[in-house]
Design a protein that fits this description.
It comes from Streptococcus raffinosi. The protein is α/β, with parallel strands linked by helices. It has one domain: Rossmann fold. 55% of the residues lie in helices and 13% in strands. The structure holds thymidine-5'-phosphate.
Length: 209
């Protein structure tokens, strides 16, 4: 097993997880003895960033749900072996903005693909690696979508353009998963004021350091 610490952050679109991560980064760098690496899915390395372009292109409206799943899985595999595992091996902390649980919530609960097949594909792509801890930033879908609309700097991608009911299924998918994997997945109420969300996230991460 790897020596570093693997943290994933998850949540529906508009939960604010990326901003929380940015805010916490200086504190983490101060206390963690190794390097703190932040990275994202889909993406993080050149090949996976290229796959990201294809998946999230707003013009790719013809994309089949299984094609979408397989592209996320392919991007995951490449990112993990090329970047994440080598960094963990060096004893570093890797914080992933999305990982295995996004497939369960989006392609499973959201698109309605078979969860047992997604679990198998995730295990195949990761050789069974899972995060030491996952922070799930939960927000109701209306608030999440409003935040995306209000944030002019954020790229609007193909998944953001899905209808409200898809976002609601994704949220429920995450909450169901958090009940099943309550040891690993820690729920954070992301509708609270930003400072409180940061503090909740910090308290959880601190207990793994
Ligand atoms: P981001 O906006 O957090 O960078 O994520 C890109 C989009 O991709 C977001 O809408 C969630 C979606 N996604 C999936 O549907 N399945 C996955 O496995 C991953 C990693 C992301």
């Amino acid at each position: 097993m790897s020596k570093g610490l693997l943290i994933s952050i998850e949540g529906p679109d508009g939960a604010g997880k990326t901003s929380v991560l940015e805010a916490l980064l200086p504190r983490l760098k101060e206390v963690y003895p190794g390097q703190v690496i932040t990275t994202r899915e889909p993406g993080g390395v050149a090949i996976s960033e290229q796959i990201r372009e294809v998946i999230l292109d707003v013009d790719n409206t013809a994309m089949d749900a299984k094609t979408e799943l397989l592209l996320y899985i392919a991007a995951r595999r490449q990112h993990l072996v090329e970047k994440v595992l080598p960094e963990l091996e060096k004893g570093n902390m890797v914080i992933m903005d999305r990982f295995i649980d996004s497939s369960v919530a989006y392609q499973g609960a959201g698109r309605g693909l078979e969860q047992t097949e997604i679990a198998w594909l995730n295990a195949y792509a990761t050789d069974g690696h899972k995060p030491d801890v996952t922070l799930l930033f939960d927000v109701d879908s209306e608030t999440g979508l409003k935040r995306i609309a209000a944030n002019g700097e954020r790229e609007v991608n193909r998944l953001d353009l899905e209808k409200l009911d898809m976002h609601q299924r994704v949220r429920k998918g995450y909450l169901d998963l958090a009940m099943v994997e309550s040891e690993r997945i820690k729920l954070i109420d992301a509708s609270q004021p930003f400072d409180k969300v940061i503090e909740d996230a910090w308290q959880i991460i601190k207990s793994y350091l």
